[in-house]
Amino acid sequence: MKKIFIDCGGHGGESIRRFRKVDKHQGDFEIYSFEPVEYVAKAYRDTLGINYSNKAIWIFDGEIDFYINKTYKSTRGNSLIKEKISGGLDKENPLKVPCINFSKWIIENFDKDDFIILKMDIEGAEYEVLNKMIKDGSIFYIDKINMEFHYDKINLEKSIHDILVNKLKNILGVNFVFKENKRK
Questions:
Q1: Percent of the chain at pLDDT above 70?
Q2: Any idea what the CATH number is for the domain that residue 144 is in?
Q3: Contacts from 134-139 at CB under 8 Å and sequence distance 24+?
Q4: Whole domain around residue 71: which residue ranges?
Q5: pTM (2 decimals)?
């Protein structure tokens, strides 16, 4: 059995540092981080012990539009979701970034008896990704999820959000930790 920590939306590596420090997980976990914008991940991408990928988490393998803050001064809130209404996204000039079929990657790289902790903060793309994981069964590879939802930032109806949250609660129980990131 392997111990795995997967950071989806790695940003500047804050979650990995917190995981290693607060949870005192040093060398016993394999760490994978996905952050599609390499200049955002520069603070940690070459850190020993991290398997970094500059791919966006998504529902297919290939390339996809990725929307960045218009000023390029802020690295927060970048998204695959063009309809996202926060973050000051430049919707006319998206970056083309590689993306990964996350469900397929989970199934091809891990076993159900591996212990996998998933942190996900992917600015609205979580709804497509998690629904696909539930549909294809890859969600059952995950033992614990630390999740940040963005339904109000992509104008998703709260009832649709609640359906997904309830499905995840039923699957993972107390091992599903989430917060709803309210639009500011």
A1: 93
A2: 3.40.50
A3: 134/167, 134/168, 134/171, 136/103, 136/107, 138/102, 138/103, 138/104, 138/106, 138/107, 139/168, 139/171
A4: 3-180
A5: 0.92
